[in-house]
Write a structure and sequence with these properties.
It contains 1 helix and 6 strands, in the order βββαβββ. It is an alpha+beta fold. It has one domain. The strands form 2 sheets. It has a 3-stranded antiparallel beta sheet. β2 and β3 form a beta hairpin. 1% of the residues are buried.
Length: 104
Amino acid sequence: MADDDKISIVTLTDEPDAGGERILGSGFKQRVDQIEVDVFAKEMNSFLKKLDKVLKEQPESIGNGFCMDEIQLNIQINAYGEIKLIGTLHAGIQSSMTLTLRKK
């Protein structure tokens, strides 16, 4: 498979026998993994379809004339291309992608 068909994902691990470069001053190692574009596209599509169901259930307006104009979500992508919404952040290193959604 050509490199054009893959995306590089930087992952962090605290597993002692994992490959990768140790990040100075932390117990984490950084590693670059490759995932297929098709796998990432499928995971993103699945995540957005689920998010669409959640957003359709939300009210058009809030309070006295307020409406939701924008939502920012932080998601995490692992070395397998799986996408997860980040809830509570723990102390330590976190990496995420921010999705900003605006109403049309």
